[in-house]
Fold this protein.
Amino acid sequence: MRGLASLVQVLLLLLAAVAGYEHYRLPEVIEPQHYELSVLTHLEDAAELRFEGLVRISLRILEPTKNITLHAKNLSIAQQDIRLSDKDNAYAISRVQIIDKYDYFIMHLANVVPSGEDYELSIPFSGELNSNTTGYYWSSYNDTVTNETRYLAVTQFSPTFARLAFPCFDEPALKATFQVKLGLHKSFTGISNTPLIECKLHEQLIDYNWCTYEPLLRTSTYLVGYAVHNLSSTGVQYSKNSLRTRFSSWLQPQLTKEAQFLINFAPQALSYLENLLQYDFPLRKVDQLVVPTHKFTAMENWGMTTFNQARMLHNDAEQPLQEKQSKASTVAHEYAHQWFGNLVTMHWWSDLWLKEGPSTYFAYLTLDALMPAWKFGEYTIAKQLQHFFKRDALNETRAIWREVAQPAEILEQFGDYVYEKGALTMRMLHKLLGEQQFFKGIRAYIAQNVYKSVGQAELWRIMQESSDLGVDLTEIMNSWTLQHGYPLVTVTRDYATGSVSINQTRFWLQPAEYESSNCWWIPLSFVLQSRPQFEQTQAQLWLKCPQAALLDISLPQRALPTEWLLLNPQVSSIYRVNYDANNWRLLIKALKSSANFGGIHALNRAQLMDDLFALAATNAQSYELAFSLLEYLPRERELLPWSTVLALLESLQQLLPVEQSTQFKHFMQQLLTPLLARCHKLNDAALSQLSSQQLELHRLAYAQACRYGLAACQEQTQLVSANDELMQLPVELRGVVYCSLIEQGNELQFEQLLQRFQQSSQVGQQRLWASALGCSRNHTQLLQFLDYLLQASKATTSSCYLQAVTSALRHQYAAVPATNHILQHALELDNKFSPAQIKQLLLSTIGNLHSEADKATLQQQLKGIKKFEQPLQLALETRAVHQDWLLQRSENMLQALAKYI
Ligand SMILES: *[C@@H]1O[C@H](CO)[C@@H](O)[C@H](O)[C@H]1NC(C)=O
Ligand SMILES: *[C@@H]1O[C@H](CO)[C@@H](O)[C@H](O)[C@H]1NC(C)=O
Ligand SMILES: *[C@@H]1O[C@H](CO)[C@@H](O)[C@H](O)[C@H]1NC(C)=O
Ligand SMILES: *[C@@H]1O[C@H](CO)[C@@H](O)[C@H](O)[C@H]1NC(C)=O
Ligand SMILES: *[C@@H]1O[C@H](CO)[C@@H](O)[C@H](O)[C@H]1NC(C)=O
Ligand SMILES: *[C@@H]1O[C@H](CO)[C@@H](O)[C@H](O)[C@H]1NC(C)=O
Ligand SMILES: *[C@@H]1O[C@H](CO)[C@@H](O)[C@H](O)[C@H]1NC(C)=O
Ligand SMILES: *[C@@H]1O[C@H](CO)[C@@H](O)[C@H](O)[C@H]1NC(C)=O
Ligand SMILES: [Zn+2]
């Protein structure tokens, strides 16, 4: 019997070895409860930046098992030093197996281990500090006092990099408590998620300490953080939240002034959010670490947020207010994560939007509450809507909820589509449920799920419970989060009966090629001219899914044949609307002649233009109708509609070949002349008193007017061309003036500005000048400058390539050489810039590649260059849409436009 038994065992072993464990999720038989993590960091020798550590994990084993599988990547671990024990026994490890594909580290046990509570697994490990901003990585800076290079070590664990720093169960749902102990030379400071308890001398290493931090509440591995550094602590502040959380900010001392905004704003954002969400922030301290290098803009580690120095510091005198606003929004976003993500965590990375969407949206709410004069939320929503509607009209898009497995796929989830559509989806929920029910639901969602992990279904469940919605919220919201794209809703009125017919279809920019049967649950709320209530955003009716159409339905309020009807007030839901031609004319008439535009909300005024131009591009309406809508613009005073229409006209212009663009230019000059005439002159002191919205409108007006060569604009810029006059201008307008001066100027003026660029050490200033130098009409000069930037050894200088080349791409006279420069240097750019930056560059070049030969060259040149290849399909699809438009629609557009010039 015995012999037989062992034969069976051998067979089983063989089977296991052959079958292996081929799944990207860890086996569900083990749960970590608590980690005790000790890490000793060596920073004293720049040639040997490394760490060694010991992790002791308390485990619960749910089912008898013969292996322990966890994550570890690029760590040295000696099998003989690993220990597994419970109170009574030690369990021998027979073999260690590594599966690179999933970063698995598998410890096969000599015998089956029974299920139980009190196991302890202890693993010593060591590794080199990473140089590429992931895991436990090193960074450096020059100490301005001693002139020495300083090294520091800091963690970036999100999404899947904790496994590079210590062996762990690196999945967000496997939450545990953590206690960190850092070993470090006494000349350094150590910080972690929680307050320091004490430091003791290292038992052997001279001048080294062991510092122990308080245990951290149950959390996911990606939120753990620690750092060893010589940065200075500055501006300690206490937040007004219930625990009076102590905020310390760590940075190079000479940067204090530029970090002041971050230092002041963070505790305010935290206490505002605590009030709004009505769940107390549970930590007594927060350390904010401003690091010289960072994989992202910022990271929300619990109690230890990290910020990218280059992207977060701010200098009011040199950088536009818009940049400050977006930095403030990042700060608020990170602190919103303390609830959305840190307290309530998504179960798996497929649900990433569940932390990024709400954090992005709640950051807008925070800014609107704390900085009301900025009106940041609405303006940002308007820009995001325009971006979303354009991008999600292509085939190359994804649902925000998406199956993800490999680390590379997980990282890809952090694309703007998840943040942006995630935020728009949260806003939709807010507008749909109304103020009271939305916050009731959100608060319940947090209170009921703290220290747990959830999927989006849980959010829908609780929001449903908290509302009196008569429809199934899960079904509704799944139709928006589980599929890509968005619907076009078509409204046809029967003017005799007052009834309407409504149907939906997916909106494609290229309708012929892709048919789809997608449908959405669409909330319908109507506004009538006689009752222009744009605050009423709750659904009056639903267009269901599937449902072919609503035919001849009567509205809650009957529409008179002479009044306009509008669907989707405030664009609270993310769909486009088409109306019958008569209703469009009624809307246009009101915009052109009614006082206050008939009460039509600024977001809708912007959206009407965006929709109608998209409909004209796809031949669902005519360009005659679209341009007649623009006739109302001379009356428009607000930023939102102008910024939308100027962006959409600029992208139209960029589609036109040079030969056809003269007419367009004349049209734009006519459109911009009255707008510019209403703006303050550039030497008018009143400019510095403008609200941030009006200042942005001035910037847009001047930038576009100069770009289209309006003499009135160029005269203005000449007026302030002397340096001290220029420095009097609000910084927002300085860039426009520099660009126009360089465009009109000669070689000498270029050289002068170039010199100032080279001598400046202020990043904000450098970006502004790089952007201006990119406006040069002299190709030789431009290309020399681009080469110079790419070759610059200083990272802040070479990153100005983006500003310079983007400027050039926006000017017809420089777009082709700039495009060629990008494609010829693709390999270098691939090394220097992030995937998002490369994607943006590629998409901006695509409009300049018209011929089939260009397309072939493009594919050839970019072969094997990773960050370019990834968005290549999207770029090619965009290009195909452009080509199609040129063939099918550009003539109609030019004819319609001809009437106005
Ligand atoms: C480890 O154990 C789990 C659960 O018992 C099992 O599903 C998995 O296949 C094992 N892994 C290997 C590589 O044998
Ligand atoms: C892995 O670590 C070794 C030394 O610990 C290092 O030389 C190597 O560059 C690391 N590999 C990667 C991909 O970071
Ligand atoms: C950074 O290094 C880690 C391993 O050390 C590796 O897994 C990762 O792919 C690297 N990332 C980049 C962007 O090179
Ligand atoms: C520090 O200064 C040295 C010499 O002045 C320079 O070569 C190096 O690039 C600087 N390092 C950083 C991180 O700025
Ligand atoms: C710092 O180093 C740079 C270049 O290595 C040198 O030009 C400068 O004089 C040094 N400054 C001080 C204060 O030592
Ligand atoms: C649209 O995208 C899907 C998957 O992303 C792809 O399989 C399909 O071929 C695309 N359709 C066209 C016409 O390119
Ligand atoms: C929707 O209604 C419009 C107007 O009646 C019609 O032209 C269109 O074909 C309909 N679309 C669908 C998908 O039924
Ligand atoms: C363009 O710039 C180059 C290099 O500075 C210069 O040699 C050339 O004369 C300039 N061309 C014109 C037309 O100004
Ligand atoms: Zn985030």
